[in-house]
Design goal:
Layout (H helix, E strand, L loop, with lengths): L18 E4 L6 E4 L9 H14 L1 E4 L6 H9 L19 E5 L24 E8 L7 E5 H6 L3 H7 L3 E5 H5 L10 E5 L1 E3 L6 E3 L6 E4 L4 H15 L5 E4 L5 E6 L3 E5 L8 E8 L10
Parallel strand pairs: 2-3
Antiparallel strand pairs: 1-2, 3-13, 4-15, 5-13, 5-15, 6-12, 6-14, 7-8, 7-11, 9-10
Keywords: Dioxygenase, Iron, Metal-binding, Oxidoreductase
GO cellular component, one term: cytoplasm
Protein name: Taurine dioxygenase
Length: 283
C-alpha cells in the first residue's frame, strides 16, 4: 500500500535569480540560472537558502569547480566542518570521494545522514562529481519530513521524547578498524530549525540504539524505522552527469550512494557545512 503522508508545505518558489524545476512532489529540484564557479551575490545566496528549505536537496548541472571554489561555495552557507575521515592535504575541509577498480568499499553505500555521530551534525553537504561511469552511480535522497508525517499518530506519540545513540564506528570502522570515531546522542524526533517541521532523525548508517527502552525493543523499533525511511514515496533519484552538483539539507534528509558501476571510476569532491545549533527535540 502506498504511503499517505500529510500534504507537504508548498515551496515558496519566490526566487529572483534562479529557477527551480521540481523532480518529485516531495523532494528535490534542479536549479538553473546560476554559475557556482563565480562569486555569488547576496540575492543569489538568499534564493539558494530558500530553495534548499523548499526542496531539501537541490541539484546543478554543468558546473566547473575545484577544491578551492567548492570551499567558497560552501562558505556562503556557513563554516565548513572537517569530516571524521581525512580531507585533502592542502584543503582539509574538502574530502575526495573516489571509487574505482581498487575500491573495497565506497562512501555512503547504505542509507545514512552525514555524520549524525557528531555532537552537532552538519547542516548540509555539497558534492561535486567531475568523473562518472558510463552508466550507474546514482544517488537517492529521502525526505525525513515525509517519513515522519507517514507514521501513525500512535507511533509518533511513542517516539516523542526518545533519544538514540549514533556511533561513527558503524559507518567508518570498515575504512579504519582501529580508528576512534565520534559518538553522540540525539532526539529520535527533531524539529527543523528553519522550517519548523518535524523530522524522523534515525538512520541505518549511524544509529546504534534507542536509549530509553530495552535492547530487544530498541532493535525491533529501529529495524521498523530504517525500513520505513526507505519507502520509495519519500525519495528522489539523481542521475549524475559530469560536473554536476548536489546540495542537501542534512537535517531533514537521508541518502544512499548506489555502487553499481564497479570497476569503473566515479570521482569528485565534497564539503560539509556546520550547523549553528544541533538536533533539538520536537516541541
Amino acid at each position: 500500500m502506498a504511503a499517505n503522508p500529510k500534504p507537504a508545505v508548498p515551496p515558496s518558489q519566490s526566487y529572483q535569480t534562479i529557477t527551480a524545476d521540481r523532480l518529485t512532489p516531495t523532494i528535490g529540484a534542479v536549479i538553473s540560472g546560476i554559475d557556482l564557479s563565480k562569486p555569488l551575490s547576496e540575492q543569489q545566496i538568499a534564493d539558494l537558502n530558500a530553495a534548499i528549505a523548499d526542496h531539501q536537496v537541490i541539484f546543478f548541472r554543468n558546473q566547473s569547480l575545484d577544491p578551492p571554489s567548492l570551499k567558497r561555495v560552501g562558505q556562503y552557507f556557513g563554516e565548513l566542518q572537517i569530516h571524521a575521515l581525512q580531507g585533502l592535504p592542502d584543503h582539509p575541509e574538502v574530502r575526495k570521494l573516489q571509487a574505482d577498480a581498487n575500491s573495497k568499499h565506497v562512501a555512503g553505500e547504505e542509507w545514512h545522514t552525514d555524520m549524525s555521530c557528531a555532537t552537532i551534525p552538519p547542516m548540509g553537504s555539497i558534492l561535486y562529481l567531475h568523473t562518472l561511469p558510463t552508466m550507474g552511480g546514482d544517488t537517492v535522497f529521502a525526505s525525513m519530513y515525509a517519513a515522519y508525517e507517514a507514521l501513525s499518530d500512535r507511533m509518533k506519540a511513542y517516539l516523542e521524547g526518545l533519544t538514540a545513540t549514533h556511533d561513527g564506528k558503524l559507518a567508518f570502522g570498515r575504512f579504519n578498524p582501529d580508528g576512534k570515531f565520534p559518538v553522540a546522542v540525539h532526539p529520535v524526533i527533531r524539529t527543523h530549525p528553519v522550517t519548523g517541521r518535524k523530522v524522523l532523525f534515525v538512520n541505518k548508517g549511524f544509529t546504534a540504539r534507542i536509549n530509553e527502552v530495552p535492547d530487544a525493543e530498541s532493535a525491533a523499533i529501529l529495524q521498523f524505522l530504517f525500513h520505513h525511511c526507505e519507502n520509495a514515496y519519500f525519495q528522489v533519484r539523481f542521475r549524475w552527469e559530469p560536473h554536476s552538483v548536489a546540495f542537501w539539507d542534512n537535517r531533514c534528509t537521508q541518502h544512499l550512494a548506489i555502487w553499481d558501476y564497479y570497476p569503473q571510476l566515479r570521482s569528485g569532491f565534497r564539503v560539509q557545512i556546520a550547523d549553528k545549533g544541533g538536533p533539538k527535540e520536537s516541541a
